[in-house]
């Protein structure tokens, strides 16, 4: 019976995973169907499925949902109040006449902005400013998109709302996520700069700064307001307050100080209305992610159930290497399986797989940060991401060409992440 149950569970992973990866059904539907199919195959009773998997699973990631809503609010505020635009344009001013310095400055600006913002709208705002600037200094369209996507993938690694999601998937501590994320983000930044340097060295790049309509830049947004995206990150890393309180401080700071002079304080009623409307809009921005969290919660509740975890334990114990060198090598090699909603994508099928691994006793800190490492390939490189698809359409290039171009670099970042996971939690 155990063997039959195991085959049923594996079949559920394969069937619904395939439907999701081939885009036959939406990810939301595929994950929900997978959770229920795994529950049935694993022998859970109908009452358990309704009560524990569906009801309990719907709120399993409630903390991450709230963090996403706050992150979306800050992103909308930064977009409405001109903070994102000013960060990018200020970086462009610092670039001067050097394409390399210009690209590095813009890369850094996107990293900073992405630490606390969420939503396609904010990315589109940054892209519509950055793409013409990079193209104007001689970068081909594909490279302009690649630089922006690499920087975005670098920045979201430091986004506190993402940290809460990673924490909640297997129940590890926030400190475990942060202690892994900071050095890996540093490595990703270095790799990103190396990528820019390698592109600048190409003879095809026009090294003469072209005239751009970005040359004359004036703004009514105070410069000190540009710190808003970094405030939540600094407060959480400094252990000053929790993620939610840190986001609230960042939101209030952005709303008050993005207005000239003391206008944000004098007209505090208008400021409060601005915050309220941004909160509503922010929830709309992150609604797709929150919807995914609901069914990911179902999937986690299913795979953590004793009958299912005990059924899968013998099989997975034979697959996952106990030797940490072999472990690092295997998951580094398999990191691109996070692409196309693949089996290592924690926002899809991967959440169920690492949930099973954590449930059978594999170090949850190790396996969670390993899965996050695979996201270093997915976040900037997955053609199914809305920000990748929009970038390709905006730049009139093939979305898969961008992925192929940056894959060696993001694969290195993912491998470094796996190595860091093993060093911190596997040795």
Automatic annotation (TrEMBL):
Keywords: Membrane, Transmembrane, Transmembrane helix. The chain crosses the membrane at residues 5-22, 28-49, 61-78, 98-131, 143-165, 177-200, 244-265, 286-304, 324-340, 347-367, 406-426. The keyword Cell inner membrane does not apply. It comes from the Archaea. This is Citrate transporter.
